[in-house]
Amino acid sequence: MNSAACDNPSKDGGSLGVSGDRSPGEGGREKTAYLTIDDGPTPSTGRKLDCLVARKIPAVLFCRGQAMEEDRAAVLDAIKRGFLIGNHSYDHPHFSDLTVEAACAQIRRTEAIIESLYAEAGVARPAKFFRFPYGDKGALTFNDVLAQPTAEGAARKAAIQACLRELGYSLPPLPGVTYPFWRDCLAREVDWYWTYDVREWALEATPPEPDLRTPADLWARMEIVDPARGFGLNSSGSDEVILTHDHAESDAIFEEIIARLQAKGLRFALPPF
Ligand SMILES: [Zn+2]
């Protein structure tokens, strides 16, 4: 996999321009992908952003509040280079394990950190986006986001969604994302889920996932053609919200993940806002 473009960022690190590429809207049926990167910042965030800038790929970085406090410079750099900073909670709990009050405190604490970073960067904050750690929306359904919650779970989830709305968080309409599980379920909520998880985190998972032990397993998974189950990278039917991670264990393959996605002809764009 040729990743030479990522090895030669411009001297000042470079930026994406004012706001990166915008969604083509309903007219173009070019397949668009919205890249999201969770869990930063980390010591290698800047190197990952160099790779994206070299390829002119915009992204939403869903950052942890605590990590942002510990490395404000990395986030300031990302903001100034045109990346959009999203809220990924303060310290990455399972929201189903929290009271509603504690869940909202996680959101608010991180919201204040992001606000202060945009102010310090002198950049207008373009939008407020949120992603739940582990995709756990607090509905007590744990690892199955589409499972029907109990009445208690549904009430908890609704209360947390209301907290996000009050703070101005949104999931913009992404009309090109046409998977039924997105259009009929996930698109109705305020937070950002995803349509395709690269699952590079599974390479270091304990216990290991039986079918995801090596990068080759990730690449093979990318070739699956089964849009009904969300494996649509190779099909033109729906746009994608792609989930990757800013994790140390997958640093070595980040560039190859991006290169392989780009080689599929996906057109990376920032969401409309
Ligand atoms: Zn996360």
What's this, in brief?
By secondary structure, this protein is of the alpha/beta class.
Question: What does this protein look like?
Answer:
- The chain has 273 residues and is α/β, with parallel strands linked by helices.
- The protein has a single domain (4-268), classed as TIM Barrel (Alpha-Beta Barrel), CATH 3.20.20.370.
- The chain has 9 helices and 6 strands; from the N terminus they run H-E-H-E-H-H-E-H-H-H-E-H-E-H-E.
- Strands 1, 2, 3, 4, 5 and 6 form a 6-stranded parallel β-sheet that branches.
- Helix 8 links the parallel strand 4 and strand 5.
- The longest helix is centred in the middle third of the chain and has 22 residues, at 100-121.
- The two termini are 34 Å apart.
- Zinc ion (ZN) binds at residues 38-39, 88, 92, 133.
- The site of zinc ion has 5 residues, from loops.
